[in-house]
Amino acid sequence: MADSNKNPGTADGCCSSSAIPKKSNNRDPPHYQKQARSSMDPQTYQLIEHVLVDQSLPAEARIAAPEKSLTLFNLQEYIDRTLDAVVIAEKAAEVSTTEGRLGCSEVLFENSGSARTLAVEPDRLGVSSLSNFSSIRANCCVYKGKWIYELMLGSKGVMQVGWCTINCQFFQENGVGDTIDSYAYDGNRLCKWNVKTQRYGESWLTGDVISCAIDCDKGTITFFRNGKCLGEAFNNVRCGPGYAYFPAVSLSMSENVRANFGAIPLRYPL
């Protein structure tokens, strides 16, 4: 997430993650795999299998656990996948020391609790909805200063994008802007959301870049479409002790967006 007080194009503690390679189909005949296993010392084989499937690894690393027994034919591939996953997990676990924000230093969408309703890309910056109305927030929140992030729209349907606190509970028909202390813009229905809805903004199109800005000192939220200010959307945002806001989006079926939290220069810096 970018600090809007910084110079244009400055990234804030983020870097791109490497995607975990997909496992290739093993076309070696079964008798070759059996020979490879039998050629390995039994104790060595057990040690390798125990260490590489260690349950103390982070959840992101454990997803690379083998679906079948390791052999000399698939061992290197599995090691590479596991190490890539560990690197991603370690980066995501690093804590930010930037003033005014809390959470991981590398800002990404959360990857827990959304597998059934959202498709999250391996770098955790792109999301697509798999249900009628799916919501997700980032792994970092802000409580002081001015902040902004961008969303590249992969579609132009019903979406509510903006900011919410940890108390914003997501349900099938309840997303960003539908509860107290959550605020959203919907360019399909031309409205802004904070429990109640009011007319706001412009119609958005696929490929648009929507900037979501919050000023935690003044208690305001403003949205931009391709760099054009749509006007101050909210000026009664509760800030101060006990309040911190996460970037968050809610998407209707098949709608999708890709976020820039500051890992690369903003397309439309303020």
What's this entry about, in short?
One of its GO terms (biological process) is proteolysis involved in protein catabolic process. This is B30.2/SPRY domain-containing protein. By secondary structure, the chain is α+β, with helices and mostly antiparallel strands.
Rounded radius of gyration (Å) = 22 Å
Just give the CATH class of the domain at 103-260: Mainly Beta
Total number of helical segments?
Answer: 4
* Principal-axes shape call: globular
Order of helices and strands: EHHHHEEEEEEEEEEEEEEE
CATH topology of the domain at 103-260: Jelly Rolls
Number of β-strand runs: 16
Q: Mean of residue pLDDT?
A: 79
What is the makeup of the main sheet?
A: 8 strands, antiparallel
CATH homologous superfamily of the domain at 103-260, by name?
SPRY domain
Distance between the termini: 13 Å
Task: Specify the helix fraction band.
Answer: 10-25%
Q: Would you tell me the structural class of the helices and strands?
A: alpha+beta
Hey, roughly how much beta strand do the residues contain?
25-35%
CATH architecture annotation name of the domain at 103-260: Sandwich
